[in-house]
Amino acid sequence: MSDNTLSRTLNDVGLAAWFGGTLANAVALNPAASEADAPARVGSVANTGWDRWTPVNAAAIGAHLVGSTGLLLGNKGRVAGQGGVAGASLLKTGLMAAALGVTAYSRVLGRRVSEHTAVPAESGTEPAAATPPAVAEAQRQLHLLQWVVPALTGAIIVVDAKLGEQQRPTNVLDGITSRIPGLSG
Predict the structure, then answer these.
(1) I need a surface site. Which of 28, 109, 148, 149 has the fewest CB within 10 A?
(2) Are the CB atoms for 22 and 60 separated by under 8 Å?
């Protein structure tokens, strides 16, 4: 068996940053922007924070994808031979695809908002009455999506925990014997 320390580290650290950063921005940055000294500065404060976070988030996502791929390749025998591992791996892949899609769409919306730095807003994701309609619509969508990314990446953390538990020797044995007719049950 090969050592997957580097892949596991990239997977875990990348996912932790992706989850934690987006959660922190939803909980803290977006609402805190409302404390700007003028309504027209609210958007600028939130945009500056998100623009600073974007390259770090991209690196975190890249690290997670590289690490996750390395783990999948390093465990391909378990994926093929141990009951339950392929299903959990497929679930993780689906959640990852969804999280990537929502993250990418959120960035598109975020760019739409950040193109208008001096727009009044209630918070980073809540428009004010004077917010231009296109920006207000993007903010309303971001208000919902800011919670979807941490929910999806949090779900990936749970699936990763399950995949880790499946590596316990008794679970490996149960997973392998469950695939052999006459030995399961």
Answers:
(1) 28
(2) no
The burial class, CB within 10 Å (0-12 / 13-18 / 19+), for 72 is middle
Whether the Cβ atoms of residue 70 and residue 11 lie closer than 8 Å to each other: yes
- How far apart (Å, rounded) are the C-alpha atoms in residues 32 and 34? 5
Q: Which helix (H) or strand (E) holds 126?
A: strand 126-127
3-state DSSP of 71-84:
HHHHCHHHHHHCCC
- DSSP reduced 3-state for 127: strand
Please tell me whether residue 180 adopts helix, strand or coil conformation: coil
Bridge partners (DSSP) of residue 127 are: 121
Residue ranges for the chain with pLDDT beneath 70: 1, 169, 171-172, 183-185
For 162, the token pair is 């399950």
